[in-house]
Amino acid sequence: MPAKLNRLNVARALTLIGFLIGLRSVGFTWAHIxxxxxxxxxxxxxxxxxxxxxxxxxxxxxxxxxxxxLLILFVPKPLRRPAVWWSMLILLFGFYAPFxxxxxxxxxxxxxxxxxxxxxxxxxxPPMIGVFLxxxxxxQAGG
Length: 143
What we know:
The protein is mostly helical and 143 residues long. It has five helices and no strands.
């Protein structure tokens, strides 16, 4: 019987913790939909509410990324391969990078408050640690 406390299970737990923390952020994004404070300003009527469309897309993209990452973390041993691990890393990078990669170029892309920035760190750090903790389980010969 395999040990219950191993790096793969710790990675799974860290990822679940990060995703649960992240649901708060995803919830805030969902709440922006329909909120008059979160509309684009332009002469076009379509452009005004188009930002809501992007919030909607972001929520579903975030949830899809979380589900696929969890599927990857729980695949049976024979399916654990380097390409699967790389897919998980790329999904995590795509999920979390928008929090920080734009900031050096545009201050407006930063989190709206220190509390939001802390939220982003708390939700990203556990899964990012987890993905590297479980790497060896996907790079072993034979899974």
